[in-house]
Amino acid sequence: MGVQLVTSADGKSYDPPLPQVGGRLRDGALVILPTETVYGVAAAVTASGALERLRRIKGRQQQQAFTVHISSPADAKLYVADPGPIGRRLARRAWPGPLTLICNVAQPEREAVARRFPQADLGELYHERKIGLRCPDHPVARELLAAAAVPVVASSANRAGAAPPTDLSAALRSLSADEVDYAVDAGRTRYNSASTIVEITGQGWTLLREGVLDRRTVRRLATSEIVMVCTGNSCRSPIAEYLFRQRLAERLGVSVGRLRELGYVVSSAGTGAMFGGSISEHSREELARRGIDASGHRSQPVTVELIQRAERIYTMAPEHRETILAMVPDASGRVLPLDPAGAIADPIGGGAEDYRRCAAQIEKAVDLRLEEYLNEDRDW
Question: Domain limits at 87?
Answer without folding.
Answer: 4-217
